Amino acid sequence: MKQELPKSAIVIGAGLAGIAASIRLRSQGFQVIVLEKNSTHGGKLAEFSEGEFRFDKGPSLFTSPELVDELFELCGKNPRDYFNYVRHETSCTYFFKDKSSLIFSGNHEKLKQELTKKFTSELAYKTLTYLERSKETYARIGDFFIDNPPVKFKDVFRKDLIVRYPHFLTAKLRKSLHQYNHSTLKEPKLVQIFDRFGTYNGSNPFKMSGLYSMIPHLEGNTGTYFPVNGMRSIAESLYQLAVDQGVEFKFDADIESVKFSAEKYFVKTASEQLQSSYLICAIDHVKFYRDILKDEKLLNHYSKQERSSSAVVFYWGIKSKMPELGLHSIFFSEDYRNEFEQIFTKKIIPEDPTIYVHVSSVVKAKDAPENGQNWFVMVNTPAGVVPTEDQILVLKEKILARMKMQFEIDLKNEIVRERIWTSKGIEEDTGSFMGALYGASSNGKLAALKRHGNKSKKYPKLYFCGGTVHPGGGIPLVLKSAKIVSELIQHEG
Ligand SMILES: Cc1cc2nc3c(=O)[nH]c(=O)nc-3n(C[C@H](O)[C@H](O)[C@H](O)COP(=O)(O)OP(=O)(O)OC[C@H]3O[C@@H](n4cnc5c(N)ncnc54)[C@H](O)[C@@H]3O)c2cc1C
After folding, report:
1. What is the C-alpha to C-alpha distance for residues 143 and 159, in angstroms, rounded to an integer?
2. For the chain, which end, N or C, has fewer CB atoms within 10 Å of the first or last residue's CB respectively?
3. Residues 185, 123 contacting (CB under 8 angstroms)
4. Contact 404, 412 (CB under 8 A)
5. Is residue 14 in contact with ligand 1, taking CB distance under 6 Å?
6. Mode of pairing for the β-strands spanning 31-35 and 8-12
7. Mind listing the pLDDT tens digit for each residue in 106-119?
């Protein structure tokens, strides 16, 4: 009797998407090998230490932790045996140039009090109504688009889609996110706060659809969280789960070519040839078409799409404590429209940048010495623009000047450790095309529909997950993309 061969899959990339996809496929009975170019897993969820300071290198904002838990539960494990997190009530403190500030809380009562104190009770009411609408949009269309493969033109008459049209074809779709925020909230500071959610997928709030007003639902309603062992522990714990389930990881894997023949993928690395029935791309799809599949036509098509923003990140070990800084702080620019115009149209480093500061030692005290803090300081920049040393120095001076203006401190003398990550490093370390943080941008009303899908139309049994494909970038969506891929494969098989 002919023996049934086990189902096999090769996953390219051991970032969060690749690890999550490997766990899901393993739980479906696949033999899974993950090939990673670096010597460790996690991709953008990297960490490093400088003296007594520990830094998470990439993501810092953690929402929807249940999506991480879900993977442990899928394998019959107690998530708490691997990974833990805490809810952080203050989602962000916003600082404005007139020295005013606003604490944005995921606790609606606290948020209402703060908005009433800083503005009026009417504006507090409007903001909570905004969040309520955001929740509704998320429930009626967000979940549907995020949980399923991308909608195709031939699907337009599908019953489950038709019922959603009244929620989709609304004024929000016609307006930009900024126009929607302005028309609902009016107060410029609040509009700027809600415009900022456009940067959650590296896009321009003045160009992206008002439907993205559902993004604040995550932070404003479901809340923000932080892993007790830092952001890196998300990747560490899932990697451990994957290994425990029998996924095989091969690091420092230099993939030379991929060929499909006789119902199999043949993947040649510098040291061996591997084969599998399924291939999962969990790296930037543009790089995959360019360097691995070498498909000029698809490369041409997808590389032309406008990229999301990149960043310059300063990691500073600070020898003192700034009580004003919480886990997440934002120092807004004066003219937000001009800042985005400079990033996306003029493609220059913004002259007056909005500054994001994340201090993980606020929650995880061991990340810094007793009297110090670990600052992750990020400024959005255009993808593909590599700042010169002079430009980085100018940027640093601007950040220091802003801190002096805001808190009357001379931060320069407080910095005892420093590292810098720019678009060049982001591209080299994680393989992101042009150093973009989230693949293609969501600028334009129908951008979501143009995003690369999860299943190849051209190559059999080739699937895509990760921050550059549907449904989008960021930890929650990357985990969703891995789930969509595993469901598509289950359906196919
Ligand atoms: C500075 C920064 C801040 C961010 N902030 C947040 C945040 O606060 N919250 C949030 O949710 N998200 C944030 N993000 C986005 C988030 O990090 C990503 O969306 C997510 O981690 C992407 O996961 P991924 O697995 O798709 O890709 P990656 O993490 O990029 O993983 C891809 C992996 O593939 C490997 N690889 C690449 N090319 C090859 C190849 N040819 N062969 C083999 N392996 C290859 C890479 O080395 C890497 O390990 C941020 C990103 C950055 C860079």
Report:
1. 16
2. N
3. yes
4. no
5. yes
6. parallel
7. 999 999 999 999 99
Q: Is the peptide bond before 59 cis (omega within 30 degrees of 0)?
A: no
Share of the chain above pLDDT 70, in %: 97
Residue 2 binned pLDDT confidence (cut-offs 50, 70, 90): very low
Cα 302 to averaged position of ligand 1 atoms, centre (Å)? 18
Domains of the chain (ranges plus CATH)? 8-81+228-305+439-492 (3.50.50.60), 87-226+307-429 (3.90.660)
Q: Name the strand (E) or helix (H) holding 274.
A: strand 273-276
Could you tell me how many helices (H) and strands (E) the chain has, helices first? 19, 19
Based on the number of CB atoms within 10 Å of its own CB, is 162 exposed (0-12), middle (13-18) or buried (19 or more)?
Answer: exposed
Q: CA angle 258-263-266, nearest 5°?
A: 25
**Does ligand 1 lie within 6 Å of residue 368's CB atom?**
no
Asked whether 202 lines ligand 1 (CB < 6 A), one says: no
The pLDDT tens digits of the residues spanning 319-332 come to 999 999 999 999 99
Contact 148, 158 (CB under 8 A): no
What per-residue confidence (pLDDT) applies to 9? 98
Name the closest-CA residue to atom 14, ligand 1.
59
Quote the pLDDT of residue 157: 73
The pLDDT of residue 489 is 97
Starting at the earlier edge strand, list the strands of the sheet with 248-250: 248-250, 31-35, 8-12, 278-281, 462-464
Report if pTM > 0.85: yes
Q: What is the pLDDT of residue 174?
A: 78
Neighbouring-strand partners of residue 138: none
User: Exposure string (b/e) for 195-204, b if CB count within 10 Å is 16 or more?
Assistant: bbbbbbbbbb
Residue 171 has pLDDT above 70, yes or no: no
Max CA distance (Å), the chain:
80
- Residue 462, SS3 per DSSP: strand
With a cut of 90, say whether residue 142 has pLDDT above it. no
CB 91 within 8 A of CB 223: yes
Q: Which two tokens stand for residue 69?
A: 């838990």
Residue 380 contacts residue 281 (beta carbons within 8 Å): no
Is the pLDDT at 273 greater than 80, yes or no?
A: yes
Atom of ligand 1 nearest to the CA of 44: 29
Residue 360 Cβ inside 6 Å of ligand 1? The answer reads no
b/e per residue, 34-54, with b = 16+ CB within 10 A? bbbbbeebbbbbbbeeeeebb
